[in-house]
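Researcher: Good morning. I'm working through a list of sequences from a screen, and I'd like to move beyond sequence-only analysis. For each chain I'm collecting a predicted structure so we can compare shapes side by side. This is the next one on the list. No need for commentary yet; just the structure.
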Amino acid sequence: MEAIPRFTEKRYYIILAFVTSLFLLWGVAMTMGDVLNKHFQNVLHISKSRSGLVQLSIFGAYGVMGIPAGLFMKRFGYKPGVLLGLFLYACGAFLFVPAADAQSFTFFRVALFILACGLATLEAVAHPFIASLGDQRTSDRRLNFAQAFNGVGGVIGPLIGSYFILRAEAGHTNDLVAVKYLYIGIGLVITLVGLSFVFVKVPKNLTDPHIVATDTMAVGDSLDPAKKLFQHKHFVFAIIAQLFNVAAQGGTWAYFINYGHEVMHLSDASAANYFAFSIFMMMVGRFVGTYLMGYIRPSKLLAIFAACNVLMCIIVSQQMGWLSFGALIMINFFFSIMFPTIFSLGLKDLGRHTQQGASFIVMGVVGGALFPPLMGLIANKNVATAYLFPIICYLVIFAFAINYNKVRKAS
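Model: Good morning. Structure tokens for this chain:
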């Protein structure tokens, strides 16, 4: 009887804990962007479609930084890649100070872009880094476990934003002072984390186990070394699926607070707290998904969750009070496993191309830059109707998941 593969090895515990914390840190930054989206509408008096450029700045950085981050990681390794990502993250946070002083939406977008270049670098490095810390057969579980802590960060982000930014708004202090001091604090925390990681010892011989084996091959079996990266059809499909996946995420999150305020008649601060709860549900979904993957093939579970989100979007668009708002919250539960599962499925069988492949899949995150401005054009008229738009994305993810095994075998 074949032994059940271990989640990770004891020698990797400290490294696993630190890299998992990175998932939390960029979760904070991602959801804080959605709070800023609503705050800029109120303070800088911009439309929903223009405020969607916040997401363009954040997710657009992934399209710019994805490949350079992958090349940097391939040349210098995981640890320098993490340090570069943290450096850019901190620099972007500190640039909020002059942006707030200038009260310039464009300056804020530049700061967010630099910060997001750091996030893109961390994502390009952290996913294969986590995958390398144990057996290939448990890589899907490790990625979903780490992404659960990304959900923790996602919960913390809107709670911080609600307390320090939107709560200040309610007190009629509609300025950018709270934003400035909040991001100074974030920059200092990221700097401290980077300095701490300098002293963490990372083995130089770490190899992503996707290179060594796949879940349908015995460990040690060789892969076709002559096959080029884009000849792996399941990898190309994964890039497309990831692009639409993050497009759905970006649009859903960008106008959550607007939906709470305009449809449910909540205050902005209260809507932000519900947004935090929806991210908590995403974290729950990742723990549930990690467990279910012990019994259900990851691609099949991905298809089930994508189909559920098509239904959730339809219910949200119907404006049926708390039923629709509950469906909006549950979108994040079903969204939970999508990013890490698509990422891990796309990397399988890539062999020596794994690290480069990771950077291309991270580039798929640029989808989050495209949908919010487009959804904003609809949301300017009816924010509920705008939630029909992400259905396109979930149908693409469903197609990827349901055809994954057939496409992978044909690669």
